[in-house]
Specification:
single chain, 238 residues, alpha+beta, Alpha-Beta Plaits, 2 domains, 4-stranded antiparallel β-sheet, two-stranded antiparallel ribbon, elongated, cell inner membrane, MgtC_SapB_SrpB_YhiD_N, MgtC-like_C, MgtC/SapB/SrpB/YhiD_fam
């Protein structure tokens, strides 16, 4: 009989409308993810949106706006565990970050719907879909732009194959030449190649460089008889 006492048609209609909005908007977001064959697709995004809307609506009906805000805080932290499940590391690459962020946004859409902020939920859905579709083309265009070593900040390494006996002397020489060129060294390591040969790897402090200046240093080192091979390489770690 407690159900009859607690039942209110107006409140029930309000909850149903919130869940319906969350369902529709979650479907729009999830459809794009499903089309791209992502780990968290249509059903996952819909369930996240509906679940978030339900918790917020429940908290609001039972405890008012203050309790609803408290529930939203738990939804924000709780969805992080779900998002972590779709993030996978494959070697040096990390996949699933965008899908995890989309789940987070789906939860935000559900919170807006559950809090009766329908216009805000629709607006947020538009931005999420826009970010996952139209900005995808912009990101691909940026990725095709060649990296400019003179303006970009990367990690640079000087690699030398040297005579084992001359390694200590060459270490000081490499550091000295790079410092004269105003490229400070952050670390110098040695790796065994054979009984008589080691690889010297000098890592520069992350900075912008002049390609010609680095090549001049490498050429100067490669002219030595105790240096068998010399080259440099760069990698972006940001």
């Amino acid at each position: 009989m407690q159900f009859i006492q607690n039942f209110s048609f107006v409140a029930f209609y309000d909850t149903t409308l919130s869940l319906l909005i969350a369902f529709v908007l979650g479907t729009l977001i999830g459809a794009e993810r499903q089309y791209r064959q992502r780990t968290a697709g249509l059903r996952t995004n819909v369930l996240v949106a509906i679940g978030a809307a339900t918790f917020v609506d429940l908290g609001q009906r039972m405890g008012g706006n203050v309790e609803a805000v408290r529930v939203i805080a738990y939804v924000v932290s709780g969805i992080g565990f779900l998002g972590a499940g779709v993030i996978m590391k494959e070697g040096m690459n990390v996949r699933g970050l965008n899908t995890a962020a989309t789940l987070w946004c789906s939860a935000a859409v559900g919170c807006c719907a559950g809090g009766n902020m329908i216009t805000e939920a629709v607006t947020l859905t538009f931005f999420v879909i826009f970010g996952n579709t139209f900005l995808r083309r912009l990101a691909n265009a940026i990725n095709r732009i060649p990296l400019n070593e003179e303006t970009g900040e990367s990690t640079f390494e000087i690699r030398l194959s040297v005579d084992r006996k001359a390694a200590p002397i060459l270490r000081e020489l490499v550091v000295d030449l790079l410092e004269k060129a105003q490229y400070p060294v952050s670390d110098v390591e040695f790796f065994d190649l054979s009984d008589d040969c080691v690889e010297l790897v000098a890592t520069l402090i992350s900075t912008a460089i002049d390609k010609e200046e680095i090549e001049e240093v490498v050429k100067a080192l490669s002219k030595r008889k105790d240096v068998y091979h010399a080259n440099w390489e760069s990698s972006t770690k940001e």
